[in-house]
Write a structure and sequence with these properties.
Length: 355
């Protein structure tokens, strides 16, 4: 059960831009504002976007404070709440999961229909980047971004659902394809291994593509119908077109590889195919204007989660017993997790489970 801490400080893994490294710091336990809840963290997991803090990028990551506690995927139990009516609907001990946008209005068109990042106020902060995140013993979260977990979801194991899960679910669902369609899941790691499970639960035929044998094996475990190692098989694109009789109906790209995006047009069905952008490479993406103008394929994006589409994904996960495959570490081992992710040596998701 969650309970108020007796101590006043906590351990937190904080990124410091001055030396581009993580430091395990002792910092004050935060106090929830009126609209917030204080959570004793049960689990926090690493997303590739977290690792992008350490590398140059021109894709819009903003560091709003320094040092900053990293991590934007988390679950835990409520220990206290702010004084607001919504915050007080949560009770001590409630198992909760939550998303990471704070200081936005949640009411404008962008917040309700697109993403909180484009809130009309221009004040949005993202925990783990421009506000403190979840690789800490406690965290405050906006009550509007939190839900009580379904009974079969464990707060010590469900953190990846609250970025990877919501993102992967909508990466598949937002293609809006009928059951029986052919989907290529590109990248079978922390996001892709969940995307495969969602696609199969929705009744699709799934082709999984990755560059490592470990990821390919993970894809098979998750139910992929066919798998291709694009580094080992030079004819993989031709084989996919033949297998699907013209190409997949959607190529859902969960990777941060620009080359993998460059390869997508060759495997989508002409006139019917969708290239779904989920993963974010360091470099800008390039698509042929004539291809798009003549309808060879569509390029779409999928929201990585708002409080308005989170519940659908989490409840679907609980109903279909879709769970993240998470390798667990201690809080002091977060730098090791980053190293493993950058070396493509991680299977599924990596996360910290707190006592």
């Amino acid at each position: 059960m969650g309970s108020m801490p007796e101590k006043k400080t906590m351990r937190a893994q904080q990124y410091d831009a001055r030396d581009n490294k993580l430091h395990l710091n002792e910092i004050p336990i935060p106090t929830p504002r009126e609209h917030e809840i204080l959570v004793k963290m049960g689990s926090a997991s690493l997303c590739h976007t977290d690792a992008m803090l350490f590398e140059p990028n021109d894709q819009g990551l903003i560091l709003g404070k320094n040092p900053v506690t990293i991590g934007h995927e988390g679950t835990g139990r409520v220990v206290s709440t702010g004084s607001g009516d919504l915050a007080r609907t949560f009770k001590e001990g409630d198992p909760v999961g939550f998303l990471c946008a704070v200081d936005c209005c949640f009411q404008c068109y962008a917040c309700k229909n697109v993403h909180n990042a484009w809130c009309a106020t221009g004040e949005t902060k993202i925990q783990g980047f421009s506000a403190d995140g979840y690789f800490a013993e406690y965290a405050v979260v906006d009550a509007r971004e939190a839900i009580i977990l379904p009974e079969n979801l464990d707060p010590k194991a469900s953190a990846p659902l609250f970025c990877a899960g919501v993102t992967a679910y909508h990466g598949i669902a937002d293609c809006q394809l009928p059951a029986g369609s052919w989907l290529a899941v590109i990248g079978c790691g922390g996001l892709g291994h969940m995307g495969i499970q969602y696609a199969k639960a929705m009744g699709h035929n799934v082709i999984a593509i990755d560059i490592t044998d470990d990821a390919i094996e993970e894809a098979r475990i998750c139910g992929a119908d066919y798998t291709f190692n694009s580094m080992a098989d030079k004819d993989w694109k031709k084989k996919i077109v033949e297998l699907t009789k013209g190409g997949v109906h959607a190529a859902v790209n969960f990777t941060a590889s620009k080359k993998s995006y460059d390869d997508c047009p060759a495997i989508v069905k002409a006139g019917q195919g969708i290239i779904m952008v989920v993963g974010i490479p360091q470099q800008p993406l390039e698509f042929n204007g004539l291809d798009i103008a003549l309808g060879r394929y569509q390029v779409k994006g999928s929201s990585n989660g708002t409080c308005y589409n989170m519940r659908e994904a989490v409840e679907f996960s609980a109903k279909h017993n879709i769970t993240p495959h998470m390798t667990t570490f201690k809080l002091e081992e977060v730098p090791k997790m980053v190293e493993l992710m950058n070396a493509h040596k991680a299977k599924g998701r990596m996360g910290v489970v707190f006592d």
